[in-house]
Amino acid sequence: MFQSPKKHRIIAIKNLLLKNSIPVTSIKIHINVGWSLRNKYGQGITDERERRDELIVPIEDFNEKLNDAQTFEIYTGEEHEDMAIKLIEECDEETFFDDCIFKTNNYDEAFEIYLLLNKNNIICDDIIPAEEKYLLFIDPEDKEEALKLIEHKDDDKERPRENQETRPRQNPNEIFVQESHEKKIYKFIIPLVIILCILLIKIDNKFIFEILINKINVIIRKNTNNDITVDYDLSSLDESEIKTIHVFVALCDNKYQGITRVSAALGDGQNINTNLYWGARYGIRSYFKKSEEWKLLTSRKEKGIILERLIFKHVEKNYFLIADAYDGKYIRQCTLDFLNSGSGKQKDSLQINGKNIGTGGNASLLAYIGHDGLMDFQLSEDFVNTDNIKRDMIILACYSKKYFTPVLEQANVNMLVWTTNLMAPEAYTLHDALTGYVNGETNEEIREKAAAAYSKYQKCSLNAAKGLLVTEKR
Asked: Do 294 and 441 fall into the same domain?
């Protein structure tokens, strides 16, 4: 009848129903349960299933930490259901739950408050767009402290440096989309490039040739204005030492993927805020935003195949992490982009505060997270390595070794971690594997870290996790 991952919201609904003489029949917890065992041949078997258990204590007194809790669910009798739903729908969400802490028409302002709250250990929901506004929600217990922080947020701000260049941030709904004036510029750039190419054919002097090529690149970069501005000092970074990890996430989708069905919210492949592999507790976005090893620089939303792009910077190393959330309906395209990047066919880059950051085939590590789409469809394309560069890969999906081995046969990749059986492709496994990767550890050491994380969160033995997560020896 009503579900939410927040205990205080369920309590508010419970009180509302009781106040209106509508009995609450039960409150349940919806969780994903992972288990593992070994058969008589010593082979590891793992599985994950969803389960609903009724609370045996009042929800107000329920403080036990749930490692795999997804949502609380509240139920009433069938004869009262219509009236209960009507009451809930009439509630003004912003005021009824008393957990909307901030709203604004400006995305950048909302993002600034979001970072402020998380920096001060106040857990804040993701920025929720609603009727041309951006809302932030927190637990009401933290409201007083949060309001004080917001009230004094400008007190300690540094004054802008003299002659410091400031650039407006891009609208979060316009990532990958150039402004209209940029499109006009292309009308001039393309003819210019054609003319220069004709001249280059007739030039035998290698030195002049390289100068002209560099000039063309500078003109294109300057006029396409593909620079993302973030509130983070990158001036000391040597661009030649920057490395990128590019993560391709196919959002979990009950409708378009051949998966064991999960709850409607977790399996909505078009909703980044509730999706199992993105906005849920152990999704890529939620987990990495809370990490002490990675700093979120910017979040960019889009309405195409890629619904959101996150850009992180490692707090110590010269590594950037680009995470793309693909609409679950387009898992095939997500898989293709991942494989084409791994073989060097698909390369791209972006500018962050003037620094060139490689993406796709220009990244040093490529990771795929989600359902193994190759269990559902076949690819006719080939993925032959195009540039003799051996890229590192991680594939966290069910039976990924079995299904990805044939398509990657000629891609010349170094597989750090992939799987031999069913698995839950949640963020903690990737996160801990990357801890080893950025520190220059071996394949086996990286795999050990991934297995330890999986064992911890899935409550399975370390040996079972090692049987599931394997690597290529080198």
From this structure: yes
Give the DSSP per-residue string, 387-427.
SS--EEEEEESTTHHHHHTTTTTTT-EEEEEEESS-----H
Beta bridge partners, 130, equal: 133
Six token digits for residue 152: 């004094």
Same domain for 334 and 463, yes or no, is yes
Sign of the dihedral defined by the CA atoms of residues 466, 469, 472, 474, in that order: negative
CA dist 305 and 325 (Å) reads 8
Q: Which residues pair with 349 in a beta bridge?
A: 358
Strand partners, 12: none
Smallest CA-to-CA distance from 183 within 149, 225, 150 is with 225
Kindly report the CATH number assigned to the domain that includes residue 433: 3.40.50
Instruction: Select from 361, 340, 358, 338 the least CA-distant residue to 350.
Output: 358
- Asked if residue 81 belongs to a domain, the reply is yes
**Pair 409, 301 in one domain:** yes
* Residue 323 φ/ψ, nearest 5 degrees: -120, 120
What H or E segment, with its residue span, contains residue 30?
A: strand 24-38
Report the distance separating Cα 284 and Cα 249, nearest Å.
8
Question: Each residue of 305-355: pLDDT tens digit?
Answer: 999 999 999 999 999 999 999 999 999 999 999 999 999 999 999 888 888
Write the pLDDT tens digit of every residue in 183-235.
445 555 666 667 766 666 655 555 555 555 555 544 544 444 456 777 677 77
Number of other CB atoms surrounding residue 154 within 10 Å = 7
Which residues are bridge partners to 135 per DSSP?
103, 128
Q: Which domain holds residue 219?
A: 180-224
Handedness of CA 138, 146, 323, 230 (dihedral sign): positive
Backbone angles phi and psi of 190, in degrees to 5: -60, -50
Please give the tally of structural domains in the chain: 4
Query: pLDDT, tens digit, for every residue of 239-279?
Result: 888 999 999 999 999 999 988 888 888 999 999 999 999 99
Residue 120, in any domain of the structure: yes
Q: Residue 375 in contact with residue 395, Cβ under 8 Å?
A: no
C-beta separation of 355 from 221 below 8 A: no
Which is nearest to 364 in space by CA: 397, 296, 402, 318? Answer: 318
Q: Where are the beta strands (DSSP E) in 279-318?
A: 294-301, 306-314
What is the dihedral sign for C-alpha 329, 73, 127, 318?
A: negative
Residue among 117, 326, 365, 349 at smallest CA distance from 227: 349
User: How many Å apart are CA 50 and CA 56, to the nearest integer?
Assistant: 19
